[in-house]
Specification:
Layout lengths: L1 H10 L14 E8 L2 H9 L4 E9 L2 E9 L5 H10 L5 E3 L10 E2 L2 E2 L9 E2 L21 H10 L4 H6 L3 H10 L1
Antiparallel strand pairs: 1-3, 1-4, 2-3, 2-7, 5-6
C-alpha cells in the first residue's frame, strides 16, 4: 500500500520536478597552468566537464574541474587538457589515488588538500566579463559552459542557456 501511495504521489508531481536522469558520477581533479582564465575556458570546452573553478595550489594557478566520469575518463580529460596547453601538472583529491605518476601525458603532483584556495570571485569565469551574459544569474554548471564558449563559439554559449536566459540575453543586446 505504501508503495502504491508513493507511486500515486509521484504521478501527481509536475514533470519538471521529477529528475530527468540520475546524477552523473562526478569526479574532481585540478590542473596547474600558467593562467587559470585560459584553463577555465579550455577545460570547460571538453565534453563531460561539468564545472570549473579558478584557484591556487602549491604556488600555482590551477583550474579545479568536476567532470562526469561516465562521459570522459581521467585519462582522456588529462590528454585533452595537455593538448589544449592547460595541464602542466594534475592534482587529485587527497582520498583519490593514481596508479601511475603520469596520467594522459600529465605528471601527477601531490594530493589536492585543504591548502587549495579558490581565486576571488572577480577572477572566476573571466571570459563572461563584458558580455551580455555577465548580467545573468547562472548556475555554476551553465556559467562553466558559457565561459568556455562565449569568446570562441558564441552560438554554442547561447545554446547552454535555457529559454528564459536566452530571452534575457536577447533583451540586453
Amino acid at each position: 500500500m505504501k508503495n502504491l501511495l508513493c507511486l500515486l504521489a509521484a504521478l501527481t508531481l509536475p514533470i519538471s520536478s521529477l529528475p530527468a536522469e540520475p546524477p552523473p558520477a562526478v569526479a574532481r581533479v585540478a590542473f596547474a597552468q600558467s593562467c587559470f582564465w585560459t584553463g577555465e575556458m579550455e577545460l570547460g570546452q571538453i565534453d563531460g566537464v561539468v564545472r570549473t573553478e579558478a584557484g591556487f595550489f602549491q604556488g600555482h594557478e590551477v583550474t579545479v574541474v568536476e567532470f562526469d566520469s561516465a562521459r570522459v575518463s581521467l585519462e582522456q580529460l588529462a590528454a585533452q587538457a595537455r593538448k589544449a596547453g592547460v595541464a602542466d601538472r594534475l592534482y587529485l583529491p587527497a582520498k583519490a589515488t593514481a596508479s601511475a605518476h603520469v596520467v594522459g601525458g600529465v605528471t601527477v603532483g601531490v594530493p589536492l588538500d585543504r591548502s587549495y584556495r579558490p581565486a576571488p570571485a572577480s577572477d572566476q569565469k573571466k571570459q563572461i566579463e563584458g558580455t551580455p551574459y555577465a548580467r545573468l544569474k547562472l548556475s555554476p554548471e551553465v556559467a562553466t559552459k558559457v565561459n568556455a564558449f562565449v569568446r570562441v563559439d558564441p552560438a554554442r554559449a547561447l545554446q547552454s542557456l535555457g529559454p528564459t536566459e536566452r530571452a534575457q540575453v536577447a533583451a540586453i543586446r
